[in-house]
Specification:
mainly beta; Porin; eight-stranded antiparallel barrel; two-stranded antiparallel ribbon
Length: 198
């Protein structure tokens, strides 16, 4: 097979949407105040060249900071929660290979982290404000590796797996177990994805 034979997708889709679920896993010193949590991901990529794509996404983890603050209601304290938002902005390179329905890519870029305490409010029986609603955030970077398999010959629908590493400094108020200090946080996210391309 020639080298040109490795490039199976001379026709490619420009618009690529993805939805993923999996675990958000803190690494290194981050495990002192963060725990593994469920993660969802929404992403969009614009493939402007055959081997190059610009990416933007939103990852959201639930409860990694183990928030124990409660909201005061007329029924007494109600347990609050926390969300960890990760916003990667960057790009990826597609790696040529000989299989028509498989696709390999790797990429990276900048990432913004935002952690916030969350509580139910505005519902019947709940106070309007929060007992303790705090947030923190900061910038860093990310890298990823992805393998995808197309379910149809037109390469519109795919399933895949992405391994994503994020490192960023966050600063601000305490959120759950995250202290009110500047911290450098490391995450390893494993996503099982469904994608649509056109």
């Amino acid at each position: 097979m020639s080298v040109l034979g490795l490039a199976q997708d001379t026709d490619y889709h420009h618009n690529n949407f993805v939805f993923g679920v999996g675990p958000a896993i803190p690494m290194g010193n981050s495990t002192n105040y963060l725990t593994t949590a469920p993660l969802i991901n929404f992403g969009y990529g614009y493939r402007f060249k055959r081997f190059f794509q610009a990416d933007a996404g939103l990852d959201m983890a639930f409860g990694a900071a183990n928030n124990q603050n409660a909201e005061l209601t007329q029924f007494g304290p109600v347990q609050g929660g926390d969300h960890e938002f990760m916003i990667p902005l960057g790009g990826r390179i597609y790696i040529p290979q000989p299989f028509n329905r498989f696709e390999l890519s790797a990429g990276g870029g900048t990432a913004y982290l935002h952690y916030s305490e969350t509580v139910s409010s505005g519902n019947s029986g709940y106070s309007i404000g929060c007992y303790s609603c705090t947030s923190r955030g900061g910038w860093g970077g990310y890298g990823l590796a992805n393998v995808s398999y197309y379910l149809d010959s037109n390469r519109n629908f795919r399933v895949g797996t992405t391994l994503q590493f994020i490192a960023a400094s966050t600063d601000g108020q305490a959120v759950g177990n995250v202290p009110a200090l500047k911290t450098t946080d490391h995450w390893m996210n494993l996503l099982f994805e469904f994608g649509f391309s056109f």
